[in-house]
Amino acid sequence: MKCPKCGAELKNEAKFCGICGSAIDQTEQTVQQRTVQQSKKPLPIGKVAAVAAVIIVVIVILSSVFGSPKVSGVYVGEKDKDTIEFKKDGELVWNSDEMSLDGTYEITDGKVIAKIVFMIPMRFTFDIKNNGKTLNQLDSDGSVKDVYRRK
């Protein structure tokens, strides 16, 4: 509540202003408080829900367009001509001239982490390029060991 004469902040039950000494008319202050409370209208829930729905739709569209690239299908290595088939369920089949190995993969931070067991567990890292059309097999030092292209 404010003093009508000098504008000083007052306690709601004040009868006099502590700054200028003016008498405070409680009925006038009550009317002013009601007017202020009535002017604070709540946001309409329907409009808030509509705006939230639009924002969610935009986020879903953007994440599908610009989200992490999808890796699926058969890729062929340029150097050793091995093929890797990435299945949609997180499983893979790695084929070379000598053998075929089953394994799993996951996509994390724009990289494919492939796990295969051949006598011992092995892990291979691929950097995803060209929106998933090319996979660069990385060596332990981060250099490119081989390049795999989607068939």
Average the pLDDT over all residues and give the rounded result.
Answer: 82
| Proportion of beta-strand residues | 35-45%
Total DSSP E strands: 8
> How large is the count of helical segments?
2
Q: What is the rounded Rg?
A: 34 Å
- Give the overall silhouette: rod-shaped
Approximate helicity band: 10-25%
Order of helices and strands: HHEEEEEEEE
Please state the oligomeric state of the protein chains shown: single chain
Widest sheet: strand order?
1-2-3-4-5-6-7-8
List low-pLDDT spans. Answer: none
Q: Briefly note the structural class of the backbone.
A: alpha+beta
- How far is it from the N-terminal to the C-terminal residue, by CA? 75 Å
